[in-house]
Amino acid sequence: MAGAPDLFVVCKHCQSEVSPYITECPYCGQRLRKRAPKIDREGRVRDPMDVPPTPKPEPPRPQKPTRPRREPPQPPRAPSPSSGPRRPVATILLVGLALLTTLGAQTTLLPAESLILAGDVDGEWWRVITTSFVYVGVGYQVVALTTVAVFGWLLERRHGAWATLTVYLLATLVGSALVVLLDPQAVSIGANAGALGLLCAWAVRDVLGRRRGGEDDSDMLGVAVWLVVLLLLPLATVEAHLLAGFGGALVGVLLGLPLARMSER
Fold first, then answer.
1. What is the distance between the alpha carbons of residues 178 and 186, in angstroms, rounded to a whole number?
2. Is residue 76 part of a domain?
3. Does the structure show a pLDDT above 90 at 170?
4. Distance from the first to the final alpha carbon of the chain
5. How far apart are CA 23 and CA 67, in angstroms?
6. Which domain, by its residues, includes 197?
7. pTM above 0.85, yes or no
8. How many folded domains does the chain comprise?
């Protein structure tokens, strides 16, 4: 009938018929309108389902890809003095000093009698060191200086110049002292003691490593042959003394034990 008020409205959520004068559905609890409906003069309800539409979520805005920040190019750095292989300063010093001293003794620029061990020392104790820098025979000089150059460089590369100088000087000192004390009238010239000291000090670490089951790239057979040649030098020339070689080798082994436990530089 025209002008009659609406008897019910339909809930859009559960499709149930409910009164047009309520704001929430009693069946599902869905909100039907924000406020109570207004009734006109004829008793009809305006906007029976005046419920604000649910706002749709806005789609996420696409973000622009960020470009990686470019840093300004850095100027090339100069290599530090400590990088790269270092020059074997101590080894070069020992070999060069031996060559210059031998040349000076042969050309009478230096008094050979006050540099070598030949007979009594007569208070000139510096000769226990300077005698290692003087040579008479070329063959002995080549063998000894080659040993000093090779194993002095290897030891210096592993631990530094201080190790090479310490081993050489102590081995020469002990070897010459044994000659002076046990055979004072003998001749002991050249670096037989110093060369054996450097060889043994370098080889101790590799020998200990092989005994523990480790592996290394060193040719220990070649080192052993080199060691035998140095020990037999007193049989080939009177300049090299057996006691000097024995003392140098002993010092090399004793110093090689603590050096073997040190880390390489």
1. 11
2. no
3. yes
4. 109
5. 53
6. 89-260
7. no
8. 2
